[in-house]
Amino acid sequence: MMKRPLFVFLRDSLRNSVIGLRRWCLVHAFGMNIGKGTIVSFKAYLDKSNPRGIHIGEKSYIAADSLVLSHDYINKRHVQTHIGRHVFIGAKAIILPGCDIADSVVVGAGAVVSEPVTESNVIVAGNPARIIKRNVRIGAFGQKKR
């Protein structure tokens, strides 16, 4: 096994510390419900207009430039947005207010989830997001099981 160079170790440690600090702030300062082991990219946007309306299960991953919304500005309503366990939200995906996502779901990059995803073990993609593959074995952080 090859040892990692020191700068790679330091870079990864710093990155993980910053992401952990951000998660701590989202949970404790804003009051979001984020499960243990969940990773929220530093560039992901979680709605702070209604932070208590965001619920994310454990061991999920929210990638860069993703949006998770829990309020509707036009209709002036605050709603609950639930994301299950072992979910992967791809880069630049948008989860609209009130759209719940079941456990073990992969949301493709750039997808716009405008309706709840009630089935588990599926991959959704597109605008609007539709199920493109069923019966996919999905583990922690939305990674495909073999």
UniProtKB/TrEMBL annotation:
E.C. number: 2.3.1.79
Enzyme type, top EC level: transferase
GO molecular function, one term: maltose O-acetyltransferase activity
UniProt keyword terms in alphabetical order: Acyltransferase, Repeat, Transferase
Pfam families: Hexapep
Keyword Signal appears in the UniProt entry: no
Family: Belongs to the transferase hexapeptide repeat family.
Record protein name field: Maltose O-acetyltransferase
